């Protein structure tokens, strides 16, 4: 140990300068970060801008250890150092800055994952976790490679080996990766979420779980249907959970003997009935055409809610009101009828099964073949 250097007055003066500037720089940086963070939080609450809130959260999660490291590096600039120390300090600046940027990006990923949570429940927790882990791995890998490159390490061979290994793994688990990327696509694009009612092909049910490889659906009949994510995305999926309104079309018919004036009144009756229902919006009611045994009306209205049970209650209310209104107008609903016209010839005799046939009565003027009971033979 160089005891002469320890007894040198200049050494202790430089040490005091470094310590003093480090403490002052640390307090100044902490104060500035605190002021900027509070200011961004205030602006975010006033303007309702998510970006400002995220920026404030990132600054609030700045590492205190790295702030101290930056303060020490600033202090070392104030004193005279050997040439090799200058080179070391340049690497120190880069390493500290790379670590802090990686921490900020990691925090940003965590905040993004939290933003996907609604009402304390993630709609797709598996996909969210996978995406978060993959992004964080990429962030920290890039940070490590950049630090190694700054220190003079040749990372070309390392990057090439990682690429070849990644291709080999991808070919080995191609089917699994297709389902994994399909799961990621579901999580990012969000065509459906847990709790949505979907219909595709012959399947109709509620999404229960979106996993790494498969999606599980609870069918209306009660059983659970499991389908791979890649196969599911190849289907045309109808998501009824996101239906805001429901367009309803229904038909009914009245008899052909209805006068034209009352036919016009039937359309007006339908409009009055639907206008009297709060959650239904009348669109149209027309005498559509002449069908077999009936004059056909087509009615269209828009349900302002998507609930199927409320739609059925509304349709029942309309049907009952139509039943009373049509009968009150003296009009009859149509039912299938057939008229048969017989021209010429003789109608065939019809015998009804189970009924006795009527026998014809004997004529009164026919001679009797039996003698009277009271006649007596003569001698």
UniProtKB/TrEMBL annotation:
Residue ranges of domain Mechanosensitive ion channel transmembrane helices 2/3 in the record: 135-174
InterPro entries reported in the protein's UniProt record: LSM_dom_sf (IPR010920), MS_channel_1st (IPR049142), MS_channel_C (IPR049278), MscS_beta-dom_sf (IPR023408), MscS_channel_2nd (IPR006685), MscS_channel_C_sf (IPR011066), MscS_channel_TM-2 (IPR011014)
Region called Disordered, residue ranges: 353-379
Gene3D superfamilies cross-referenced by the UniProt entry: 1.10.287.1260, 2.30.30.60, 3.30.70.100
Domain of life, source organism: Bacteria
GO molecular function: mechanosensitive monoatomic ion channel activity
Transmembrane segment boundaries: 12-37, 91-113, 125-149, 155-177
Membrane topology note: Multi-pass membrane protein
Domain Mechanosensitive ion channel MscS: 175-242
Family according to the record: Belongs to the MscS (TC 1.A.23) family.
Name of the protein this chain belongs to: Mechanosensitive ion channel protein MscS
């Amino acid at each position: 140990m160089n005891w002469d250097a320890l007894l040198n007055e200049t050494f202790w003066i430089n040490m005091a300068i470094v310590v003093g500037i480090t403490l002052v720089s640390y307090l100044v940086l902490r104060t500035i970060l605190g002021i900027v963070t509070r200011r961004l939080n205030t602006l975010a609450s006033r303007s309702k801008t998510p970006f400002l809130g995220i920026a404030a959260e990132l600054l609030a999660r700045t590492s205190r250890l790295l702030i101290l490291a930056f303060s020490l590096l600033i202090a070392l600039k104030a004193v005279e150092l050997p040439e090799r120390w200058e080179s070391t300090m340049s690497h120190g600046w880069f390493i500290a800055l790379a670590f802090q940027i990686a921490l900020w990006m990691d925090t940003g990923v965590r905040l993004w994952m939290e933003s996907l949570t609604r009402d304390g429940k993630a709609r797709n927790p598996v996909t969210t976790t996978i995406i978060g882990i993959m992004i964080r791995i990429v962030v920290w890998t890039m940070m490590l490679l950049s630090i190694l490159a700054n220190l003079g390490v040749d990372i070309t061979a390392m990057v090439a080996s990682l690429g070849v290994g990644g291709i080999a793994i991808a070919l080995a688990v191609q089917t699994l990766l297709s389902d994994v990327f399909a799961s990621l696509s579901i999580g990012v694009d969000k065509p459906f979420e847990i709790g949505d009612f979907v219909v595709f092909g012959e399947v109709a049910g509620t999404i229960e779980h979106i996993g790494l490889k498969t999606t599980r659906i609870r069918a209306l009949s009660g059983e659970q249907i499991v389908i791979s994510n890649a196969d599911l995305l190849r289907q045309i999926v109808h998501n009824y959970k996101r239906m805001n309104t429901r367009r309803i079309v229904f038909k009914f018919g009245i008899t052909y003997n209805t006068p034209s004036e009352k036919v016009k009144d039937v359309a007006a009756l339908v409009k009055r009935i639907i206008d009297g229902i709060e959650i239904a919006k009348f669109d149209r009611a027309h005498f559509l055409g002449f069908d077999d045994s009936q004059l056909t009306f087509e009615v269209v209205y828009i349900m302002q809610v998507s609930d199927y049970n409320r739609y059925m209650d509304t349709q029942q209310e309309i049907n009952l009101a139509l039943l009373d209104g049509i009968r009150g107008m003296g009009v009859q609903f149509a039912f299938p009828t057939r008229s048969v016209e017989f021209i010429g010839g003789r109608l065939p005799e019809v015998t009804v099964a189970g009924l006795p046939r009527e026998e014809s009565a004997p004529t009164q003027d026919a001679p009797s073949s039996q003698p009277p009971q009271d006649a007596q033979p003569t001698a």
